[in-house]
Amino acid sequence: MRKLKLSQGKERSFYILLVILLLSLSIRLYIAPHSTGSDITQFYGFAGTMLHHPLDFYSYADGEHWQEEGWPYNWPYVYGPVLAYLLALLRIIVGEGAVKFFWDASGYHVFASRSWIMAVKSLFILADAGTGILLYILLRKKSEKLALVVSSLYLFNPMVIYVSSVYGMFDGLALLPFLLGLYFVEKGRKNLGYGLIGFGLAVKHTLIFPALIVLWDELLDSWKNPEALKKSLRSFVAGIVIPFLPFLLKPSSLLEIPDLLQGMKPDYTYPIAYNLNGIVSLLTFIHEIGNLDTLFYMKHWVIFSVLALTVVLFIHYRLRNLRVSIALAYAAFLLTYWRVNTQYTLPLIAFLLLALPELDWPSRVVMFLPIIPPTIWPIAFPTSFWFHVHIEHPNWDMVKMVDRLTFMIFETGPFVVISVLFTLSLFALMVWMLAISFELRRCNG
Q1: Per the UniProt record, which residue ranges are transmembrane (predicted)?
Q2: What is the pLDDT of residue 445?
Q3: Looking at the DSSP assignment, which residues form a beta bridge with residue 110?
Q4: What angle is formed at CA 345 by the lines to CA 110 and CA 137, rounded to 5 degrees?
């Protein structure tokens, strides 16, 4: 009888998860064709360069050749090659002329076709669905109901929907193999797990802190078994390196990667509203209104970042809860990195939600707090901007609907407040968990 009830409970959970997925996908597919951020238009140029220069792609990825390569902007490609491979494939499918850009009397215009928008966003939307399923799988042993709630909180989070389906950015494509790798590590299939985590970094290297925590955990477990440790490290490195192997046929291109991966030089961040690092947003705001030199933090952010990571390494040494420490590691990155774009918060939301069940209720509250500011951001922002700025023939009914659903705040000040609250919540989480690491009594996992 008990087995029958368990079977019925799992079947019910499966159907509930299916409904959650269908509803969340319906929302995304409804809005996705009618909006796009500037990056999706730039991705079309990256795809063309990968097709034209497949073996020395990174020699042309610095943005200096943007006009001859047919890019709408001079922004560089600063990621691993996985995204470029996918974009090149999508451009072959969609065909030429899907993005156009030109000057006229009213200014510079960049328009993307709906076929290109949906081709790219379909990858991001599928990654969202995959992440929602993985969160459920990772948590269902603790509680079917809890797993469904966490999956729902992720899939229906406004920022998650904004990143994948409104603006369109690929952080979810890096998060998905990382979480899948974590699943296999916890199941004991460590080589596959570490390989997938390494592969996630080849998609987007912003997950480097969580990856380092996973390696730190393996070092703490296997330091007495050097062969097992070497095997795990080889798998991790292989996951990173394999996507780069085609470039060995023309290795000069690889020499460009270290400089490209460093990204932009730290500076004041504009538009201020787009940066969720509260320290940098506030310092940029002070510089703007007072004409003061406030670049100190931006110039030395690496020092603060290393200190924050060291704190997380210590916390993990004390608590040995991998899910909690992964969330803290990524929180440390967003706490200290000088330019926290809105899309960077998508993995944070997933990591924090995954870690919640590992803690007692007071700690859950503290860990949930950093989710609130990025959840508010796309509701406060005039999000309808992305429904017409790069759409040649906008759906104005959709624009009006989005305007009704958002606060449409155009002033900078409220977004400085949101970013400061976000950074304070991350700092509070770090301090709280550091205190717990000395107590050694709140973690259950």
Answers
A1: 12-31, 82-103, 115-139, 159-185, 192-213, 233-249, 270-290, 296-315, 322-338, 368-387, 407-432
A2: 47
A3: 101
A4: 115
Every domain of the chain and the residues it spans: 2-439
Q: What's CA 343's distance to the chain center, in Å?
A: 5
**Rounded Cα gap, residues 210 and 221, in angstroms:** 17
Those residues whose C-beta lies under 8 Å from the C-beta of residue 24, and which sit 6 or more positions away, are 128, 129, 132, 155, 156, 161
| Cα(336)–Cα(306) distance, integer angstroms | 9
What gap in Å lies between CA 160 and CA 64, rounded to an integer? 32
The token pair at 245 is 């192997």
Q: What is the spatial distance between Cα 16 and Cα 346, in angstroms, rounded to a whole number? A: 23
Which token pair is 197? 């985590």
For the chain, how far is it from start to end, CA to CA, in angstroms?
30
CA-wise closest residue to 62 among 299, 305, 325, 262: 262
Handedness of CA 419, 443, 157, 115 (dihedral sign): positive
Which among 412, 401, 271, 391 is positioned nearest to 339, based on CA atoms? 271
- Copy the structure tokens of residue 391: 């759409």
| CA torsion angle 98 102 106 109 (round to 10) | 40
Q: What CA–CA distance (Å, rounded) separates 252 from 58?
A: 9
Q: Residue 398: pLDDT above 80?
A: yes
Q: pLDDT above 70 covers what percent of the chain?
A: 96
State whether residue 109 is helix, strand or coil.
strand
CA angle 374, 380, 386 (to 5 degrees): 95
Query: DSSP state, 274?
Result: G
Beta bridge partners of 108: 103
DSSP string, 15-39: HHHHHHHHHHHHHHHHHGGG---HH
pLDDT band of 255, cuts 50, 70, 90: confident
pLDDT one-digit tens code per residue, 307-339: 999 999 999 999 999 999 999 999 999 999 999
Compute CA 123 distance to the chain's CA centroid, rounded to the nearest angstrom: 14
The pTM score is 0.96
How many Cα atoms occupy the beta-carbon half-sphere of 184 within 13 Å? 17
Residues 429 and 367 sit within 8 Å (Cβ to Cβ): yes
CA distance 343 to 330: 13
**Between vectors from CA 8 to CA 4 and to CA 13, what angle results, nearest 5°?**
150
Share of the chain above pLDDT 90, in %: 91
Q: Is-contact 55 250, C-beta < 8 A?
A: yes
